[in-house]
Backbone:
């Protein structure tokens, strides 16, 4: 008896044997029992999931001697001929090699003749999306109103390439990918029939490598059985097919977790020297990081991971954040996509591995935001604790010009400065007084302090000093705020630092408004005051015109000369 591959030998012969397509099987069997046979079907789905097999099952169900029936006998001449592909009334056409209008014309002429043996003449056109537009147009009328004994079954892996005029004339069934668990069960059944001992890990690896295709899984099983010597093991697969096992991947991931770039590159060289291709190495490493990401998020099913969660390197599990693992997978995927355009794939692989060794340096935007917030809150000693224990000052926005500040005495003496440490209230200083205090020598600034009450003494605070301290605090973190503060006129009014901006500098004032929280935190730590931004009202338009004239004078370095009005001039 000639050898028969597993994919052909295990082709389903009844709807009950169909794997992973329960919806398709249930719908077709119900339609056959009710006698609701459509004249055209469109089977769409990935490769190797059973589209052609279901088309043959449908032909057997329609032409079986006991039918039409949803359970064909499989023993009558019609069923046996259809299973062998030798039935005269079941015509299988390869759409990839019969794409012209003439091929469709032959079909259109043949449908006029009744079936020779069975009840129905079934046309199975595989890869129907390969037909030309002219061929599709020539087929429209035939599939819309065929003779009652003709049934069309179209199969395609790219349904989006089938014209809408064809899809609208067919009942469409979407085939799905088969799960890894279902494929593994069928592989175990096939291995038992072949008399081969197979490890569960090896069958799981084959099922996962098939990516949802039953035919691919059977083909890979035949290949593995041919060199396994009657025992299918994951170790044999790793050695013969040039893939990396979990032990090798664990050994490779250890120096990455330790950040040892030199050890990573040396191990990569040893792996490639054993004949493992760069593509396969990248695929295995990407799958490993993807599994680490799944474990980090709580996924532990071995059918989804490919290996048991306990098999992964303990130092790697939980070593990185989900964001870092996502970045690692993204890095490897980008490298794999660029292999065919690379000058030297090995150089780019080594560059990618060197970046993986620095995976700890990768910071997500969320982590960066939290770190900046912590730095802002903890700049001044005790600022965070003070903010947590005392109410946060409110940031006030005023469109009116600030009122004239109240006059205050000059700067305090050393005795008053010592009293300032005892949390005495702050008395504001007017702008003229502040300028005088700034220009006077230190010994001239000592003066009696006006008492604010019978129990406390007032301390004068220079608003310019507060602004200077704010600018120094934000010089590295927020240079834009520093530039905006330079445009502000600062005064103290009723315990508030009033920052006034002219209409020309309104943009800078808006920039300061956006940083209200940070400003108030710094001010609370400096002098227990809060800030208020004020925008000076715009001057009349004539002043704006004078400013423009003055700007032109400065640019052109000239003088403004008022000319005489001579009235309208002729054009």
Residues:
């Amino acid at each position: 008896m000639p050898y028969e591959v597993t994919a052909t030998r295990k082709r389903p012969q009844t709807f009950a044997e169909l794997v992973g397509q329960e919806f398709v099987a249930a719908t077709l069997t119900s339609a056959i029992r009710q006698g609701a046979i459509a004249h055209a079907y469109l089977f769409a789905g990935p490769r190797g999931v059973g589209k052609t097999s279901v088309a043959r099952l449908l032909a057997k169900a329609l032409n079986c001697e006991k039918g039409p029936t949803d359970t064909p006998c499989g023993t009558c001449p019609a069923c046996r001929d259809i299973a062998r592909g030798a039935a005269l009334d079941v015509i299988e056409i390869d759409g990839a090699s019969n794409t012209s209008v003439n091929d469709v014309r032959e079909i259109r002429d043949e449908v006029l003749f009744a079936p020779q043996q069975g009840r129905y003449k079934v046309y199975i056109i595989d890869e129907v999306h390969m037909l030309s537009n002219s061929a599709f147009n020539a087929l429209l009328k035939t599939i819309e109103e065929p003779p009652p004994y003709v049934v069309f079954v179209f199969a395609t892996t790219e349904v989006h390439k089938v014209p809408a005029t064809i899809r609208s004339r067919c009942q469409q069934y979407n085939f799905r990918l088969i799960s890894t668990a279902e494929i593994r069960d069928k592989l175990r059944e096939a291995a038992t029939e072949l008399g081969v001992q197979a490890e569960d890990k090896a069958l799981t690896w084959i099922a996962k490598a098939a990516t949802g295709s039953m035919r691919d899984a059977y083909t890979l099983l035949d290949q593995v059985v041919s060199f396994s010597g009657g025992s299918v093991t994951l170790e044999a697969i790793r050695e013969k097919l040039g893939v990396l096992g979990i032990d090798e991947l664990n050994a490779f991931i250890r120096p990455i977790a330790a950040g040892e770039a030199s050890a990573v590159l040396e191990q990569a060289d040893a792996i490639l020297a054993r004949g493992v291709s760069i593509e396969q190495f990248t695929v295995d490493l990407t799958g490993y990081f993807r599994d680490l990401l799944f474990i980090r998020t709580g996924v532990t099913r071995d059918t989804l991971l490919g290996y048991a969660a306990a098999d992964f390197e303990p130092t790697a599990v939980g070593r990185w954040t989900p964001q870092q693992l996502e970045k690692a997978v993204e890095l490897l995927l980008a490298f794999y996509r660029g292999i065919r355009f690379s000058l030297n794939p090995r150089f780019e692989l080594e560059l990618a591995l060197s970046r993986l060794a620095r995976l700890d340096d990768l910071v997500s935007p969320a982590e960066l935001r939290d770190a900046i917030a912590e730095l802002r809150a903890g700049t001044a000693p005790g600022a965070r604790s003070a903010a947590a224990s005392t109410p946060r000052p409110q940031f006030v926005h005023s469109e009116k010009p600030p009122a004239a500040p109240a006059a205050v005495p000059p700067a305090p003496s050393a005795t008053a400065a010592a009293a300032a440490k005892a949390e005495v209230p702050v008395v504001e200083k007017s702008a003229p007084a502040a300028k005088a205090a700034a220009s006077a020598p230190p010994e001239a600034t000592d003066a009696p302090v006006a008492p604010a009450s019978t129990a406390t003494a007032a301390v004068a605070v220079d608003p310019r000093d507060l602004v200077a301290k704010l600018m120094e605090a934000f010089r590295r973190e927020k240079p834009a705020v520093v530039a905006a503060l330079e445009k502000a006129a600062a005064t103290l009014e009723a315990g508030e630092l009033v920052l006034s901006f002219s209409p020309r500098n309104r943009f800078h004032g808006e920039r300061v408004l956006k940083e209200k929280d940070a400003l108030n935190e710094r001010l609370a730590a400096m002098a227990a005051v809060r800030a208020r931004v004020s925008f000076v009202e715009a001057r009349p338009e004539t002043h704006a015109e004078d400013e423009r004239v003055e700007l032109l004078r400065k640019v052109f370095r000239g003088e403004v000369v008022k000319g005489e009005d001579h009235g309208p001039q002729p054009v």
Summary: The chain has four domains: 6-174, 180-241, 246-361, 392-403+425-440+456-555.
